[in-house]
Specification:
α5 runs parallel beside α6. The strands form 3 sheets. The protein has a 6-stranded mixed β-sheet, with helices on both faces. Helices cover 30% and strands 24% of the residues. It is built from 8 helices and 12 strands.
Length: 294
């Protein structure tokens, strides 16, 4: 759930960058985003650069290094799968990409269309077109889905949208995603089943129109029918937004049967130990992670 990456992180001090990035920020206002390639919707535009570039990324949590130099490129319209055993660092990477302050970048960089966003706050990354669907979406009592999306999309576009115009967009997507029209009036994730929470993430993905979608174990806790509904929703959004890049974090091949990737990456102990085409996921399903364990 994108929450413009803020509702989960409210209370964190987003006014100052991480200490390790102070050397980047001696120039005035360097901690805030600049949009040299801005077009409508605050989207960065540098067609010569990859949509997402992760360059030598090292990340620590509470002083312990979790990621040990990650390199990864995701181009426009591409779907990449990141697979690995529990504790390998997959969710650490997803949270770091969205700027969660609990994850300290100690080396390397994250670039969006060539712009270094490593020191950017989560809301700045979201406005620039990055989206994170959480593995465990949080409940927000008293906040209807439509009101949440209105605030999020208004911030994304830099203008105040009316409830009516947003409701029309939401109703269209609810129909396309096969969801109950009353869904928009329910409180955000309150009383939702696991499948409903994940489908709500897909609704946000559809309405907020990001350039880069990071799906952190979207298949977690879903039975096969719910998984197909969620994956089908993601594919519907991708058909609408063909240029959107997608990074899917998952343990299992079954999600990739519904969301076929162009590239598959295996992460073990904080390192990407193998990359390849869709056949790599099939090999992983057959052999398990044993061949890649240290």
């Amino acid at each position: 759930m994108i929450q413009l990456a803020t509702s989960r992180l409210d209370g964190a001090d987003r006014s100052r960058p991480h200490a390790h990035n102070q050397d980047r920020l001696h120039a005035p206002d360097r901690g805030r985003p600049h949009f040299p390639y801005r077009s409508s919707g605050n989207r960065l535009k540098d067609v010569s650069a990859p949509l997402l570039e992760i360059d030598g990324l090292h990340v620590s949590v509470d002083g312990t290094e979790i990621l040990h130099g990650i390199d990864l490129l995701v181009g426009e319209g591409e779907l990449h799968a990141l697979m690995g055993p529990n504790g390998s660092g997959k969710s650490t990477l997803a949270n770091t990409l969205m700027g969660n302050p609990a994850y300290e970048v100690t080396g390397g960089a994250v670039r969006l269309r060539g712009e270094d966003v490593t020191a950017w706050a989560p809301d700045a990354r979201a406005k620039a077109g990055m989206f994170l669907a959480f593995q465990y979406p949080e409940e927000v009592p008293g906040v209807p889905v439509v009101q949440f999306l209105r605030r999020a999309l208004s911030a994304r576009r830099g203008m105040d949208l009316s409830v009516l115009e947003l409701r029309l967009a939401i109703m269209e997507w609810l129909g396309r995603l096969g969801m109950d029209p009353a869904f928009g009036d329910r409180y955000l994730n309150e009383g939702f089943s696991g499948g409903e929470k994940k489908r709500n993430e897909v609704l946000q993905l559809a309405v907020l129109e990001p350039d880069l979608a990071i799906l952190d174990e979207t298949d977690s806790g879903l039975d096969i029918d719910a998984l197909r509904l969620v994956a089908g929703g993601v594919q519907e959004v991708r058909r609408e937004r063909a240029a959107m890049g997608t990074l899917v974090v998952t343990h299992y091949q079954r999600l990739l049967e519904e969301l076929p990737p162009e590239r598959v990456h295996i992460m073990v102990a904080g390192r990407i130990v193998a990359s390849g085409g869709p056949e790599l996921a099939i090999e992983l399903e057959r052999s398990g992670y044993e061949p890649w364990l240290p």
